[in-house]
Amino acid sequence: MAAAVLVAQGAMAQTCNVAGDGLTYPVTHTVDQQDNYHGTVIADPYRWLEDANSAETKDWVVAQNQLTQSYLSQIPGRDALKERLTKLWNFERFSVPFKEGGRYFYSRNDGLQNQAVLYTARTLADVPRLLLDPNTLAADGTVALAGLAVSPDGKYLAYSTAASGSDWNEIKVRDIDSGKDVEDHVKWVKFSRTAWLHDGSGFFYSRYDEPKEATKLADVNYFQKLYFHKLGTQQSADVLVYERPDHKDWGFGAEVTEDGRFLVINASQGTENKNRVFYKDLSKKDAKVVGLLEDFDAAYDFVGNDGPVFLFRTERNAPRGRIVSIDTRKPGVLNWKQIVPESSNTMVSASLVNNQLLVDYLSDAHSLVRVYDLKGKALHDVELPGLGTAGGFSGKRGDTETFYSYTSFTTPSTIYRYDLKANKSSMYRQPKVDFDPSAFETRQEFFTSRDGTKVPMFIVSKKGLKLDGSNPTYLYGYGGFNISLTPSFSVANLAWLEMGGVYVMANLRGGGEYGESWHAAGTKLQKQNVFDDFIGAAEWLVAHKVTSPAKLSIGGGSNGGLLVGAAMTQRPDLFAAAIPQVGVLDMLRFHKFTIGWAWTSDYGSSDNADEFKALLKYSPLHNLKKGTCYPATMITTADHDDRVVPAHSFKFAATAQADQAAGGAPILIRIESKAGHGAGKPTTKQIDEVVDRWGFLTRALHMDGGEVKAAGQ
Question: Belongs to which family (predicted)?
Fold first, then answer.
């Protein structure tokens, strides 16, 4: 059969019902690039933008940023918004403390520091000592602390850093008493845990082979390996512990059991919500790595052990999770013992503290924490302040205390100390933010998606919201990779609420809010369910007069950027503005860059004929059509994003600018420098990005710029 040629255009031109801004977009030339997918030929005229290092791509980036900043700088109220955001952001905040080697550790940001600072103390009553200040690692704050692990004896801190938002990490080691680094330096680490031997003589970590310097931010990442680094030696002497050259797509994470006896190796395959588990007996010299769970049939999270008996949270035969014990000496499934059964709530995680199991659940997308004894008897729940999100609860088996954080849409992350013997929580750190939480309200609504599925969403607004369809609204979603969206505090969203905006967060399929079946219902050939859920949320908001299409905007990042791109191309009439952030927008080529291949577990791959057809139907890049009235759109990305390479955003922006109907709303792209996918972004860059985002929406949704100024009065 003759191949058909498809180009991202073809819709009949139409007249837009919005006033154009008279923008002249930078000239973006096209090339005659075509690819044959299972007999269908797809044109890719902006393929050249995939080369981020070429001079012409760099010139294009400069031209696009100049246009975007010229447009944004003319929006009234930006100075007042930045002033208010800076004031809101300037509050003291803490991480959840943890204890190791007789010391407490936590991070603190005094308000406007670009990066949080790590502190340590012997007791909670002691004056804490500054241990590591990432702000000293780069003048502009673009080197972030990406991970840390304290040796069990409390002598050393292994810490990883990431520069300019890249996923590439370097590990260094600091002597905790002296506060100075020793000579150890490990490079080319990515997607890795750091696990110390019990005697503090060294640690396990995962790395890739050294990449080519010029293309390290784009080249595909395969063949991760697990190594052991002995303290005081060069990386070249590190010992290879485990690799699988027969499976280039396997990744490895390691942890050492609390008793120091076993190395537990988690083997993942991309982002699939399944894994394999291996272990090594560290008490025996030259012990081999042994396979324990090798069927790749479910998710298995190690919780703790009683010698050779391991506890796991698993979704095997329990889509919402349960806890089982497995005796490594007789590991057959028939010998497993169920400790905590599956319930109607979704089991997120479990920890072993005070010889009890602390189990974190999601109940309709908010936290529920329950305590069990080691036989699985439910003892009591941890009393939480409200319908929000709790996290933490780590510790040692013999500890009688643990710490956790609690947050909601209007509650800044507050740290609590939990006494397990008394079943009592006491507030440990409470931040003070310059706003009145009583002025806002949160409600949860359930709407019906296209196929009849009930889907929840949270609606946050000022109290007394008038349901007349006039409220500027920002609808946010994600819907992928088993990731759950739960209530959390955001200074950025608070500013939006103060401006009179409504913030809506939808808990779409593809996430993990209701367990693995909820996740699976939004993957591969069923991915359209996610977009239908998001569109269903928007239609509910309009039908119930929370907002109207002229006042409705959508946003999301990464997989959420895909969500926004799909929604705006499928229903451009439903939204006034769209902000796809660091989005996966070219669904035919995403797997060809860095770690993109790992996402095929959720998306499928264009290499598969059936999955190609499904991908082509919703791929945002390939569903833009010439002459269509698209919402006002600001695409955001960053030059060091090696998770979702900026080529996605570049090609989508170029195509959308070419296809937008004459007189249509602006299509802009904002390209951050010395930043990546989002993690570790300095406070200054975060504030600037939010100012641009809300500033863009004030114009797109025809909000009064005066509201911005009034919010700070």
Answer: Belongs to the peptidase S9A family.
Res 486: pLDDT: 97
Query: Cβ distance 303 to 288 under 8 Å?
Result: no
Mean pLDDT over each residue of the chain, to the nearest integer: 94
The answer to whether 569 and 561 are in contact (CB under 8 A) is: no
The CA distances from residue 550 to 190, 500, 534, 577, 704, in Å, are: 43, 15, 17, 9, 14
Closest CA to 589 of 532, 653, 652, 523: 652
Determine the Cα angle at 348 with ends 342 and 354, to 5°.
90
Element (H, E) at 226: strand 225-230
Q: Which residue has the tokens 């114009």?
A: 699
pLDDT at 572: 98
Supply φ then ψ for residue 353, to 5 degrees: -135, 140
For 45, the token pair is: 């005229």
Q: What is the pLDDT of residue 20?
A: 62
pLDDT per residue as tens digits for the range 614-639: 999 999 999 999 999 999 999 999 99
Those residues whose C-beta lies under 8 Å from the C-beta of residue 2, and which sit 6 or more positions away, are: none
Instruction: Render pLDDT for 551-603 as a digit per residue (tens, 0 to 9).
Output: 999 999 999 999 999 999 999 999 999 999 999 999 999 999 999 999 999 99
β-bridge mates for residue 42, sequence order? 6, 35
The pLDDT tens digits for 18-33 are 656 779 999 999 999 9
Query: What residue ranges in 540-648 does DSSP mark as E strands?
Result: 552-557, 577-581, 632-638
pLDDT above 70 for 3: no
Task: Tell me if residue 710 falls in helix, strand or coil.
Answer: helix
DSSP string, 305-340: EETTEEEEEE-TT-TT-EEEEEETTS--GGG-EEEE
Nearest CA to 648 out of 674, 671, 617 is that of 671
The CA-atom distances, in angstroms, between 89 and each of 83, 215, 430, 672 are 10, 36, 15, 20
Those residues whose C-beta lies under 8 Å from the C-beta of residue 323, and which sit 6 or more positions away, are 303, 311, 312, 313, 314, 338, 339, 340, 347, 350, 357, 359, 376
Point out the residues that are catalytic: 558, 641, 677
Q: What are phi and psi of 165, to 5 degrees?
A: 80, 5
Residue spans of alpha helices (H) in 455-606 = 491-498, 516-520, 528-543, 559-570, 600-603
Report the alpha-carbon distance of residue 446 to residue 600 in Å, rounded.
30
Which amino acid, residue 201?
Answer: S
- Per the listing, tokens 């919780």 go with 303
Q: Give CA–CA dist 292/329, Å, rounded.
A: 10
Contact 72, 695 (CB under 8 A): yes
Q: Is 87 left (phi over 0), alpha (psi -120 to 50) or beta?
A: alpha
Specify the DSSP element, H or E, that contains 143: strand 143-150
DSSP 687: H
- Please name the residue that has the structure tokens 């806890």: 323
Q: Residue 125 pLDDT more than 90?
A: yes
Quote the CA–CA distance of 642 and 168 in Å, as a whole number: 9
Quick check: helix, strand or coil at residue 188?
A: strand
For 681-685, the CB contacts below 8 A with 24+ separation are 681/144, 681/165, 682/114, 682/115, 682/140, 682/141, 682/142, 682/144, 683/89, 683/109, 683/112, 683/113, 683/114, 683/115, 683/141, 684/112, 684/114, 684/140, 684/141
pLDDT for the residue 677: 86
- CB 87: neighbour CB atoms within 10 A? 17
Q: By the 8 A CB rule, do 50 and 651 touch?
A: yes
At 1 the pLDDT is 30
431: left (phi over 0), alpha (psi -120 to 50) or beta: beta
